Amino acid sequence: MAYELNGKTIETNENGYLNDPHDWSEELAQVIADAEGGIGQLTDQHWDIINYLRDEYLNNNQNQPNDRTILKDMAKKWGTKPTSKDMYALFPKMPSKQGGKVAGLPESRRKGGY
């Protein structure tokens, strides 16, 4: 699988995750979101999660937070307590995994649970 953007082919693994996180751009994020389906136009809340996930991965020893951690950190950022339902409304196929895909990060190999 690959994404096409501005005449350039961006390579992915078999599950649609970028092979190189440095190929990512905000424009590509919307292309990935469109390909995922169910996400729609990226909103400020989407971008908060995407930028948070990229920052954690690129600046915190390749950390890939789980859904519970994302929920807690977004509550701090937004000043309100979002629910899991709120997070799944943004990224229906799992915020940590689908959000990471849209953020251009490698596929998480983390097991489930907390």
Describe this structure in words.
The protein has 114 residues and is mainly alpha-helical. It has one domain. 47% of the residues lie in helices and 7% in strands. The protein is built from 5 helices and 2 strands. Helix 2 crosses helix 5 (95-102). It is found in: Cytoplasm. It is an enzyme of class 2 (transferase).
Features:
114 residues, mainly alpha, two-stranded antiparallel ribbon, 5 helices, 47% helix, 7% strand, globular
Helical residues, percent: 40-55%
Integer tally of domains: 1
Task: Note the overall shape.
Answer: globular
**Gyration radius, in Å:** 13 Å
Q: Tell me the number of strands.
A: 2
Please give the order of strands in the largest beta sheet. Answer: 1-2
Strand content: 5-15%
Mean pLDDT: 93
**Low-confidence spans: pLDDT under 50, at least 5 residues?**
none
Write the layout of secondary structure elements.
Elements: E1 2-5, E2 8-11, H1 26-36, H2 44-59, H3 67-78, H4 84-90, H5 95-102
Antiparallel strand pairs: 1-2
Helix pairs in contact: 2-5
What's this, in brief?
GO terms for molecular function: sulfur carrier activity; transferase activity. It is built from 5 helices and 2 strands; from the N terminus they run ββααααα.
